[in-house]
Design a protein that fits this description.
- With about 625 residues, the chain is of the alpha/beta class.
- The chain contains 19 helices and 27 strands.
- The strands form five sheets. A nine-stranded mixed beta sheet has the order 11-12-13-16-15-14-17-18-19, sandwiched between helices. An eight-stranded mixed beta sheet has the order 21-22-23-20-24-25-26-27, covered by helices on one side. A six-stranded parallel beta sheet has the order 5-4-3-6-7-8, with helices on both faces.
- The longest helix has 20 residues.
- The chain is elongated.
- Its cofactor is Zn(2+).
- InterPro entries: ADH-like_C, Gfo/Idh/MocA-like_OxRdtase_N, GFO_IDH_MocA-like_dom, GroES-like_sf, NAD(P)-bd_dom_sf.
């Protein structure tokens, strides 16, 4: 407790960061220096791939922040360094760190300079930290290198490579990944599972520590890299500097100290239509920035009858931004507030669709008495807890599938919903397919038949890698809970009666996502859901066939519905695929306004979830029942 630490967390006053993404700051390293640790680790990881040895000579192409740090780290390895950049000021800065530098002026010849620098032998390696669409930096690097030289790309360039450049010299070319091993691995970054040091010496955390040790030893000087400092409440000025490029800059620091904040309570920082409020904290000099951004004025009027569905959104990912939120807006709901993890995606979507506020605190939505309805579109492991919080706050709730990931959460949600006073809040899960026009037509046709029916649902789902978040039992819950539930609900809706029992069998695989689920209904109907991840992408993704009373319905990918033996019905085609998202949102918003029941009864949602939870449990245990 009390140690200073550095992490890769976002720009914020308070961040929650997993332990493997933090490193203790040694005594003697200032806070200002420590903030360069993450950038230094990016440079260091590229250098580790170069595998430098004492006395070798290297070129660093691109002398921005990462390039300047790389110059110093290579020198700390005992290497000679030549830096290249189009900015003469950055070349002079690299020279101040003891490197040779070459200005990439029009008509200059960096290859000739590199050969001169290497005593006509060719350099041992090139670290490319530049950002350009051109492939020229890589081509030049190949010409600069000696035979069997090494090239590492840490920046972003074009990659149109000439094979002969690499073949004749037997060059190696590698692309470094961020701060080092562990990056983008949820088991390392999110769950805190470290790699054994005997097998992975330099993880991203240990790279952080190595950079900090260089700073503590005086071998990595970042003070000359700082060109601007801004107090946090003037952060918009810093971003204006980066966006408008009106003056030279390199290292731009945001200062979070309380002394830097404005002293007046309620002081405001304004930029275009975005307003950030600064509020006084508990201490005489303390202040904090609210985590809510006001995107537009709400006005003083109360919501009209047509605006009684006042909506708060939790989550601003791809599905929410492209499909669900626009559908809710089209349904006529008033979009009050949107909450997202970082605030960036929520603010962008909020401005686009006309939300009044954007926040990073879900409690803002739960505590707002004007918000009647909460939409939840976050990762699956958060659904159950967020649904419970919203219900306890008295909100109507729409949650994307699945409702939850455990029986315990499902029981708690049912108990909370039952305990709410009348009129009870509405709870709906995003089983949109039952609202699709083709499915509505099939339901109407089937209601005119007698006797049990047989359903065959084939889903050519395609493969998802085992390390994808949806395959993680603790985060995504797996595809049975996350996706198969859609089709269980769809067949349950068309059958129109409860599921009596079910069986599941699956191919053996680490992802448990190639399976056949059989359903038996109380009226004698049967259903089979083939959910397959081992198919070909050119085969239709979803196909539903229904056999009833000497007749057949065939739905192909929510585009074409064909009837065989149906009096007065042969086909129903749509120009565009429609899986029911618009109708689903409209039905739920209308139910909220009218005070009517949820478009999907909770007992049906619960039934579907219990079937899927049991199926997932059986597949993971290897049993069939």
């Amino acid at each position: 407790m009390g140690d200073r630490v550095v992490s890769n967390g976002p720009h914020a006053e308070v961040v929650s960061v997993p332990k493997n993404l933090c490193a203790r700051i040694p005594d003697g390293v200032s806070d200002e220096a420590a903030v360069f640790t993450v950038l230094g680790a990016i440079a260091l990881q590229g250098i580790r791939l170069l595998e430098p040895t004492l006395g070798e000579c290297f070129v660093v192409t691109g002398l921005g922040l990462i390039g300047q740090l790389a110059v110093q780290i290579l020198q700390a390895h005992g290497c000679r360094v030549l830096g290249l950049d189009v900015d003469p000021a950055r070349c002079r800065l690299a020279e101040g760190f003891g490197a040779a530098a070459f200005h990439l002026a029009p008509g200059s010849d960096p290859v000739a300079e590199a050969l001169r620098f290497s005593r006509q032998r060719g350099v041992d390696g090139v670290l490319v930290t530049a950002a350009t669409r051109s492939s020229e930096p890589i081509a030049q690097a190949a010409h600069m290198c000696r035979k069997r030289g090494r090239i590492v790309l840490t920046g972003v360039t074009g990659l149109e490579l000439n094979r002969s450049d690499f073949y004749e010299k037997e060059l190696s070319f590698r692309v470094s990944c961020s701060y080092g091993p562990g990056r983008y691995d949820p088991h390392y970054e999110e769950k805190g599972h470290d790699y054994p040091v005997g097998y992975v010496r330099w993880t991203e955390q240990r790279n952080f520590e190595a950079v900090l040790d260089l700073m503590a030893a005086g071998k990595l000087d970042v003070e000359p890299l700082i060109t601007h400092r801004f107090p946090f409440h003037e952060a918009t000025r810093a971003y204006d500097l980066l966006a408008e490029n009106r003056e030279p800059y390199l290292g731009v620091l945001l200062e979070y100290s309380s002394a830097a904040a404005p002293r007046e309570a309620g002081a405001q920082v304004e930029k275009t239509a975005t307003r950030v409020r600064t509020e006084r904290g508990p201490g005489p000099e303390a202040s904090r920035l609210s985590r809510t951004v006001f995107l537009k004025e709400s006005g003083q009027e109360r919501p009209s009858a047509a605006e009684e569905a006042v909506v708060g959104f939790i989550g601003a990912g791809a599905f929410a931004s492209r499909i669900l939120a626009p559908a809710v807006a089209a349904a006529g709901a008033r979009l009050k507030a949107i909450s997202s993890a970082s605030g960036v995606s929520g603010t962008h979507l909020g401005k686009k669709l006309g939300f009044q506020q954007s926040t990073t605190e879900n409690e803002v939505l739960f505590g707002d008495p004007e918000i009647t309805t909460v939409f939840i579109t976050t990762r699956h492991n958060t659904h159950g807890p967020l649904v419970l919080k919203a219900l306890k706050a008295g909100k109507h709730v729409f949650v994307e599938k699945p409702l939850c990931l455990t029986e315990k959460e499902l029981d708690a949600i049912g108990e909370e919903l039952q305990s709410r006073p009348d009129p009870k809040p509405l709870l709906m899960v995003g089983f949109n397919r039952r609202f699709a026009p083709h499915i509505q037509k099939m339901r109407t046709l089937l209601q005119g038949t007698k006797g049990p029916k047989a359903f065959v649902m084939t889903v050519n789902a395609g493969a998802i890698p085992p390390d994808h978040w949806i395959q993680d039992p603790e985060i995504g819950g797996g595809r049975i809970l996350g996706e198969v539930c859609h089709f269980v609900d769809l067949v349950r809706f068309l059958a129109g009666c409860p599921i009596r029992e079910h069986w599941v069998s699956a191919l053996k695989s680490p992802t448990h996502d190639t399976l056949s689920l059989q359903l038996a209904f109380q009226d004698g109907s049967i259903g089979t859901i083939h959910y397959l991840s081992n198919g070909h992408r050119r085969f239709p993704k979803e196909r539903l066939e229904v056999f009833a009373q000497g007749r057949v319905l065939q739905l192909d990918n929510f585009r074409k519905l064909r009837g065989f033996g149906w009096p007065g019905f042969k086909k129903m085609n749509l120009w565009r695929q429609d899986k029911g998202h618009q109708a689903e949102a409209a039905a739920f918003i209308q139910a909220v306004r009218s005070g009517g029941p949820s478009p999907i009864a909770f007992h049906e949602i619960e039934e579907v979830m219990r079937v899927c939870l049991a199926a997932d449990r059986h597949v993971r245990s290897g049993s069939r029942a």
